[in-house]
């Protein structure tokens, strides 16, 4: 399935957001996710199914002022 | 003496808000935060680098028992981007407040006040405690306050410039009229800059570069801490008015002839 993650096109096989994150080696407690411009809360990662051409933003906390 | 900084439901003993950016490494940052006596540190929200496997997490260097994390919306250029960033920060598990920063010009990093105001209205409605970064401009300070900003954060000078408090008169005017806490944000290059802000009556100072890029960040953090405490004390103590002529400290009469 084709996903656009942080502006990059990726070809990945995954059902829901939790599976996507483990496939990307990302800790679900260290990120926040926007799916097609809507926030997906952590408790919904398991039950949020992804589909072809979904656009995701996966962000984390970094240093800033 | 009880002299706490209160921003809506949040209360702090320290009036120094400090950043987490630009440090040589997270160990130095952590020591600087300790030396600053920081109770609030700012962070940014950025895309995860999907190709970077070395995941040294900033969060493990912040003692969240003592320190409250304030997410910023730095590098957002529209209200929409800033609103989405604030929502993402909340979804990441950070406290329900935000240093709202909407930039209007890449070179000076001057704020876009119109977009900031727009974002303030939306985020306040969503229940965020909004600390709005703005120019040292009384008109927008008032508008942001009316829109529900919990604190207004006028800049001392452009972000990262270390130029100090360029327009103390405008800051003073904002302080005289504000009903919410005023935190001077950006431009503080050295300890005396922070003291000047506090002597004017600012409720706090937010800074990053002045400490992070000092030769000895930990020592500069310590200097900033005492500078802010000194400035606060001087403000509360009430300075003497400036006079054109001298006024002797010792008795004028009864000297030997």
CATH topology of chain A: Ubiquitin-like (UB roll)
CATH architecture of chain B: Alpha-Beta Barrel
Q: How do the helices and strands follow one another from N- to C-terminus of chain A?
A: EEHEEE
Number of helices of chain A: 1
Number of domains of chain A: 1
Largest interface: A-B, 29 and 38 residues
What percentage of amino acids of chain A are in beta strands? 35-45%
Q: Name the average pLDDT of chain B.
A: 95
Supply the CATH architecture of chain A. Roll
Globally, the shape of chain A reads: globular
Tell me the CATH superfamily of chain A: Beta-grasp domain
CATH class of chain A: Alpha Beta
Shape of chain B: globular
Instruction: Indicate the mean pLDDT of chain A.
Output: 94
Q: Percent of residues of chain A in helical segments?
A: 10-25%
Please characterize this protein's 3D structure.
The complex is a heterodimer of chains A (65) and B (257). Chain A is mostly beta strands and 65 residues long. Chain A has one helix at 17-23, and strands at residues 2-5, 8-11, 32-35, 38-40, 54-63. In chain A, strands 2-1-5-3-4 form a 5-stranded mixed β-sheet, with no helix packed on it. The mean pLDDT of chain A is 94. Chain B has 8 helices and 10 strands. The mean pLDDT of chain B is 95. Chain B starts with a strand and ends in a 20-residue tail after the last helix. In chain B, the strands form 3 sheets. Chain B has a 5-stranded parallel β-sheet with strand order 5-4-3-10-9. A 3-stranded parallel β-sheet of chain B has the order 6-7-8. In chain B, strands 1-2 form a two-stranded antiparallel ribbon. The A-B interface holds A 5-8, 10, 24-27, 29-34, 37, 39-42, 57-65 and B 19-23, 29, 42-48, 50, 53, 55, 57-59, 69, 71-72, 74, 84, 87-89, 91-94, 159-160, 186, 206-209.
């Amino acid at each position: 399935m084709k996903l656009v993650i942080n502006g990059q096109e990726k070809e990945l096989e995954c059902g829901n957001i939790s599976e996507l994150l483990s496939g990307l080696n990302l800790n679900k407690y260290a990120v926040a996710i926007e799916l097609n411009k809507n926030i997906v809360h952590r408790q919904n990662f398991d039950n949020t199914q992804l589909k072809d051409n979904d656009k995701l933003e996966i962000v984390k906390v970094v240093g800033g002022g | 003496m009880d002299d706490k900084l209160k921003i809506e439901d949040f209360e702090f003993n320290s009036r120094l808000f400090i950043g987490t950016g630009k440090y040589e490494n997270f160990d130095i940052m952590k020591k600087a935060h300790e030396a600053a006596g920081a109770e609030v540190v700012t962070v940014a929200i950025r895309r995860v680098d999907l190709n970077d496997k070395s995941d040294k997490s900033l969060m493990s260097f912040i003692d969240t028992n003592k320190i409250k994390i304030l997410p910023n919306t730095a590098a957002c250029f529209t209200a929409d981007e800033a609103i989405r960033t604030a929502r993402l920060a909340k979804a990441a598990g950070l406290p329900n407040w935000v240093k709202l920063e909407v930039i209007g010009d890449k070179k000076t990093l001057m704020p876009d006040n119109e977009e900031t105001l727009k974002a303030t209205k939306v985020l306040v409605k969503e229940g965020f405690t909004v600390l709005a970064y703005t120019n040292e401009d009384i008109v927008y300070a008032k508008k942001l306050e009316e829109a529900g900003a919990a604190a207004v954060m006028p800049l001392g000078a452009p972000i990262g410039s270390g130029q100090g408090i360029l327009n103390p008169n405008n800051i003073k005017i904002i302080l005289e009229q504000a009903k919410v806490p005023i935190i001077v944000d950006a431009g503080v290059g050295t300890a005396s800059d922070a003291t000047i802000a506090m002597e004017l009556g600012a409720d706090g100072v937010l800074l990053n570069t002045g400490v992070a890029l000092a030769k000895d960040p930990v020592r500069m953090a310590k200097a900033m801490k005492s500078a802010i405490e000194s400035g606060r004390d001087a403000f509360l103590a009430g300075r003497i008015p400036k006079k054109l002529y001298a006024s002797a400290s010792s008795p004028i009469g009864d000297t030997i002839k």
